[in-house]
From TrEMBL:
Domain of life according to the entry: Bacteria
Source organism per UniProt: Bradyrhizobium lablabi
Gene3D superfamilies found in the cross-reference section: Dihydrodipicolinate Reductase, domain 2, NAD(P)-binding Rossmann-like Domain
This protein's UniProt keywords: Oxidoreductase
Domain Gfo/Idh/MocA-like oxidoreductase N-terminal: 2-115
Similarity comment: Belongs to the Gfo/Idh/MocA family.
SUPFAM superfamilies: Glyceraldehyde-3-phosphate dehydrogenase-like, C-terminal domain (SSF55347), NAD(P)-binding Rossmann-fold domains (SSF51735)
Name of the protein described by the UniProt record: Uncharacterized protein
Domain annotation GFO/IDH/MocA-like oxidoreductase: ranges: 136-241
Keyword RNA-binding set for record: no
One Pfam short name: GFO_IDH_MocA_C3
Length: 323
């Protein structure tokens, strides 16, 4: 299987390319970039293009990975599908629920896969977590925090015309967490907006409270304007787990749980795992088998959840757009 990357971003250079090189089904990696020069070399090296249209037209790739500003995603997703390619997109895959539905509809019509690269849930700890909840549950509540310090002004996340803002950037983490813990069918969503960027006006944070599909309660705080926090607390009837660095685990990082069961505390460790590689393994396996629906369902479920959060925020702030 041949991979073409559109957009030689920082996340591509740091995580996607090294991870793709580990995936057995990926034989060749080509790059298209308008803003950066051809690298001197890269794993499984294929072609280099300085034009996205030319890359889609000339490349014999099977799979396209899009790593472009959010506002460009829909155009290039549809262009890649029209060119007969399977597509993976950095989160958020599409900026709106309507765009997500349009992309999935076209992918289904063409017999192609389209997937959002929200990869944290592919860490093995989530398989262990499902077993833990089954043993100590039912799940009663979960609380997430993902907060980062303010980004440099030039970062695209600070600019609405490029698809910036905290809800678009961090909303996929909130939505995927709710899906992983509670299944589909999130209900009773309420939300509180954070601040606005002093220069560009994009939303800088949001808090959300929701009823999960399995009846548990979820609360989450996501922000571009605070001391770094990255954790998830999951509480069942007779046990709880606190997971640090849960949303962005480095490939070489040993994850730890702070686990409590019936008032007895211990620490659980997990061997390092490359979530991007595990995600791409799952994507290429789905392409090989022809069964794409898991990824389509997840994309639509998460887009629906983000839309519900946006609607809840807009009901309190009708003059300020969130998506």
């Amino acid at each position: 299987m041949r991979l073409l990357i559109l957009g030689y971003s920082s996340i591509v250079e740091r995580r996607v390319m090294p991870s793709a090189a580990k995936v057995g089904r990926i034989e060749e990696i080509s790059i298209a970039s308008k803003s950066r020069k051809r690298p001197e070399g890269w794993p499984k090296q294929g072609q280099f293009f300085d034009d996205y249209e030319a890359a889609l037209r000339s490349s014999d790739c099977d799979l396209v990975y899009l790593s472009l500003p959010n506002a460009w995603h829909e155009h290039w997703v549809m262009a890649a599908l029209a060119a007969g390619k399977h597509v993976v997109v950095d989160k958020p895959a599409l900026m709106t629920l309507t765009g997500s539905e349009r992309a999935v509809s076209e992918a289904r019509r063409a017999g192609r896969l389209v997937a959002e690269a929200t990869v944290f849930g592919y860490h093995p700890q989530f398989e262990t977590l499902a077993a833990f909840i089954a043993e100590t549950g039912p799940l009663t509540q979960a609380a997430a925090q993902f907060i980062i310090p303010p980004l440099p002004i030039g970062n695209f996340r600070n600019h609405a015309e490029l698809g910036g803002g905290c809800l678009l950037d961090m909303g996929p983490y909130a939505a995927a967490t709710m899906r992983i813990l509670g299944g589909d069918g999130v209900a009773d969503v309420t939300a509180l907006a954070g601040g606005r960027h002093a220069e560009t006006g994009v939303d800088m944070g949001f808090s959300v409270l929701a009823r999960l599909g399995n009846g548990g309660a979820f609360s989450g705080h996501f922000s571009f304007e605070g001391e770094y926090q990255n954790r998830l607390l999951v509480v069942g009837r007779s046990g709880s787990v606190l997971m640090e660095r849960v949303f962005t685990p480095p490939a070489d990082h040993q994850m730890e749980w702070r686990r409590r069961v019936r008032n007895a505390d211990d620490v659980v460790t997990f061997e390092p795992a490359d979530t991007f590689a595990r995600f791409l393994e799952a994507v290429t396996a789905a392409i090989a088998s022809g069964d794409h629906e898991r990824f389509h369902r997840d994309l639509l479920s998460d887009a629906t959840c983000r839309d519900m959060i946006a609607t809840a925020l807009a009901s309190q702030n009708p003059a300020q757009p969130f998506m």
